[in-house]
Design goal:
alpha+beta; four-stranded mixed sheet; Ubiquitin-like (UB roll); 35 strands; 6 domains; 16-stranded antiparallel sheet
Length: 798
């Protein structure tokens, strides 16, 4: 009887001729007589057995495995007997070889008879019916391998592992049926027939015990979301036990960042409802009191370590709201600095002393001499796609280095930040000697590819369509490949980039970006522009919050006009800029980015700053220096409302006697002050009888005060928010030429620093295709020649 359902073979062995069969039977009979005679020669005991004292082992049923091999698993006692313990040990050892699917031992007279039934040899191991999980993802999960033996227990275990893999995708009703195909000669193929079923969604998420933060705010923290009409696009509503368990840690860290040092999040209650065919999740929060930092000190018990110097590294401040993540980062900072100073075995512990009456926590960073332990090995598990070296470069330590707990915790946080894995966990276990430690890095990967086709409309660029293809972990190498192709009414182009975060063998990145963009004359500008080129980039993180990027760019740019398409002649400045023709811009630049925001995609607290500088003139046709700054500050007012303050500004100037080309100037637009049209404000050529174009300025500034609120009645996971804002800004100081050879007209230039302001309301949607913004702004102050556009609408895959 077969262990599993058996498919019939399409081709059987060829039938032998009758004459050959008769001859083979006669030779086999003669061989049997010879073997029998030899077996009972001398003392009459069968040669198939191995005599040990008074007992003999006889093996029956073996075909491929030698009898001597089977007998070698049995060990007689000192009297040459196979007692009960010896028989049981031999039986267990044979079963563990996985060479047999049935083994039994009988005693008959002075003989120990071992009955074996050899397991078939596996040929192919395949999967059928699996669409959501690829063969390449299932093969490493199972233990049945080609060339091994077919084992009932192993196959059943493999079935459970395949089902578990599907459960991580939210498909609890998956079924797996193992089927064997007989190939003859004790060889079979094993096929796992998978019926995937439908995904199991999360129908409801509840929070219990939360008083400091509302449901909306906590729902935005976790990765799991309730099923809604957009779930087929956004995902997140699939029940995955690993992600749900990770949500507990996200909630705990969120509360600790907000001052709740004693928070506890017990295991999540997950209940399946057959009526809705989905899960109800209940997250219980035990908040505890809100604390602030009290006294912050550094106490060193290691000779030669100056606590005063380490104290200057700390970012936690007395009186500030307690922040558990900041505390962890300071532990890591001190650990890294001690290792740099030559104290690799020093151990840093942040000792907390609670003053429950005063709701404050005193922090003492205690530095002790830890045990002299070294990292023997770093074992990495679960990275089916991501290469080992991509993971290892996130560690500041390697095999043979001193064990440093702070640096290991930093590596774990860096691996999570890569966004290649659903879960990351680093644990330790004893090594081969007491002073050796083994690190186990357990990972679970997730999809890192991106593909989208989208269309949209923008009051800046008109109708547009865009194709985006990319992978932030291409081939498991950590290389990010991105490409976007845009075709719009007033703008079209492409951008293709490749970035390797470990290009220089460490955490410094290198990359290249190829781009081209064409803007077409429209109601807001009488000229077209074409810009294409390449940029080479090098970036490096200086701290966990601060990063630097350096770049070199070479680009070809030009302005053109089509008088036949215009009702009026272009403005004088535009005509002269177009007459210059194409120009090459060769420049170097740098960007400094500092960020403390809690969530880069949907920030609610913290600030970010980006300072950019570019110097053109290393060859090429133009020379200028450009500097810009963009600062954002976020503060959560309550569960639903986030306040945003933004300030931005820039300056560009020519050098070496060169003037800044028109195309490189700053132009006022709705991204600075809403309520104004593209190129709607700034220096303008008001010469009568021309198109009166905005000619740009060399300086700009803009500020924004904005309130963002979730919309009552809509789940926060929809990403839809209402906004109210006040904008102010200006573009001014045209520094280009004002007299043009061959022109009989005199330039009438509006070039003053007029403050533009507006107030308005709107909505933002973090859609699956990219951000969508709708606003209605009323300009309050403006220049008489400005062009307004109260209704603003933008939608694109970015």
């Amino acid at each position: 009887m077969s262990l599993f359902p058996v498919r019939s073979r399409t081709h059987g062995p060829a039938r032998k001729p009758a004459g050959i069969a008769v001859i083979a039977s006669m030779l086999g009979f003669a061989a049997l007589i010879f073997v029998s005679a030899s077996a009972f020669a001398d003392d009459g005991k069968p040669a198939a057995g191995d005599s040990k004292g008074d007992e003999t082992i006889v093996v029956e049923g073996n075909k491929r495995v030698e009898a001597a091999t089977v007998r070698s698993y049995f060990r007689a006692n000192a009297n040459g007997r196979y007692d009960e313990a010896a028989r049981d040990a031999g039986l267990k050892a044979l079963i563990e070889t996985r060479l047999f699917d049935n083994v039994s031992v009988d005693r008959s007279g002075g003989r120990l008879i071992v009955h074996v039934h050899e397991a078939p040899i596996l040929g192919k191991v395949a999967f059928e019916g699996n669409k959501r999980v690829k063969d390449t993802d299932l093969t490493p999960v199972i233990d049945s391998k080609p060339g091994g033996s077919l084992q009932r227990a192993v196959v059943q275990s493999d079935v459970n592992k395949i089902i578990e893999a599907y459960k991580h995708l939210g498909r609890d009703d998956v079924s797996v049926k193992p089927v064997t195909i007989d190939r003859g000669n004790d060889r079979v193929d094993l096929v796992f027939e998978v019926t995937e079923g439908v995904k199991t969604p999360v129908r409801q998420i509840s929070f219990v015990g939360n008083t400091a933060f509302g449901r909306r705010q906590l729902a935005a923290v976790i990765k799991t979301s309730q099923s809604n009409f957009l779930s087929f696009i956004t995902g997140g509503d699939v029940y995955d036990p690993d992600i749900v368990n990770n949500d507990r840690e996200l909630l705990r860290n969120y509360y600790r960042r907000k001052g709740y040092a004693d928070v506890n999040v017990p295991p999540v209650q997950a209940e399946y409802d057959p009526a809705t065919k989905g899960f109800t999740l209940t997250y219980t929060i035990e908040e505890g009191p809100l604390y602030r930092f009290g006294d912050v000190t550094v106490d060193s018990h290691v000779e030669g370590v100056d606590p005063g110097k380490l104290r200057r590294l700390l970012t936690v401040q007395q009186g500030a709201t307690f922040d558990g993540s900041a505390l962890d980062r300071n532990d890591e900072k001190i650990s890294a600095e001690l290792a740099r100073l030559g104290y690799p075995f020093s151990r840093v512990q942040s000792r907390t002393t609670r003053d429950e009456a005063g709701k404050r926590i005193d922090i003492a960073f205690i530095i002790d001499q830890g045990p002299r332990a070294y990292i023997e090995r770093i074992n990495i598990h679960g990275n089916l796609r991501t290469r080992d070296y991509v993971i290892r470069r996130e560690f500041d330590i390697a095999e043979g280095d001193a064990f440093n707990k702070g640096l290991i915790e930093r590596a774990e946080r860096r691996l999570k930040k890569l966004d290649y894995f659903k879960t990351v966990k680093i644990t330790t276990k004893p090594g081969s000697t007491p002073d050796r430690v083994i690190l186990d890095v357990d990972l679970q990967e997730k999809d890192t590819g991106d593909f989208s086709i989208a269309g949209g409309y923008s009051t800046v660029d008109g109708w547009l369509a865009e194709l985006k293809v990319g992978d932030r972990n291409f081939g498991g190498t950590g290389v990010a490949l991105n490409s976007a192709f845009t075709f719009g009414q007033f703008a079209r182009g492409f951008d293709v980039s490749a970035t390797d975060p470990g290009f220089f063998g460490n955490r410094a990145s290198g990359g290249i970006d190829l781009s081209a963009k064409e803007t077409i004359a429209n109601d807001y500008q009488s000229f077209s522009t074409l810009n294409y080129g390449a940029t080479m980039l090098v970036g490096t993180p200086l701290t966990e919050e601060l990063g630097m990027q350096f770049r070199y760019s070479i680009a070809r740019q030009q302005i053109s006009v089509d008088p036949a398409s215009l009702a009026l002649p272009p403005s004088i400045v535009v005509q002269q800029a177009a007459a210059i023709g194409p120009q090459w811009v060769s420049s170097v630049g740098d960007t400094a980015t500092y960020s403390t925001v809690d969530n880069p995609k949907a920030p609610t607290d913290g600030f970010s700053s980006q300072l950019r500088q570019d110097l053109a003139g290393l060859g090429g046709d133009v020379r200028f220096l450009r500097t810009t700054e963009d600062f954002h500050y976020y503060h959560s007012l309550n569960d639903d409302v986030v306040a945003l303050a933004r300030a931005q500004g820039g300056y560009i100037t020519g050098w070496g006697g060169s003037q800044v080309p028109l195309i490189d100037n700053f132009f006022g637009n709705p991204y600075m002050v809403r309520g104004f049209a593209p190129n709607g404000f700034g220096p303008r050529d008001l010469t009568p009888g021309t198109t009166m174009d905005n000619v740009g300025g060399s300086m700009y500034w803009a500020t924004t005060a904005e309130l963002q609120s979730n919309i009552p009645g809509l789940p926060s996971e929809y990403g839809l928010k209402a906004i109210a804002f006040v904008d102010a800004g200006s573009v001014f100081h045209y520094s280009g030429p004002t007299a043009f050879p061959g022109s009989t007209q005199s330039l009438q230039l509006a070039n003053s620093n007029v403050m533009r302001t507006s107030v308005g309301v709107g909505m933002t949607w973090a859609s699956p295709f990219g951000p969508l913004n709708v606003s209605y702004a009323v300009p309050v102050t403006k220049a008489s020649y400005d062009v307004t556009q109260p209704l603003g609408f933008t939608a694109s895959p970015f």
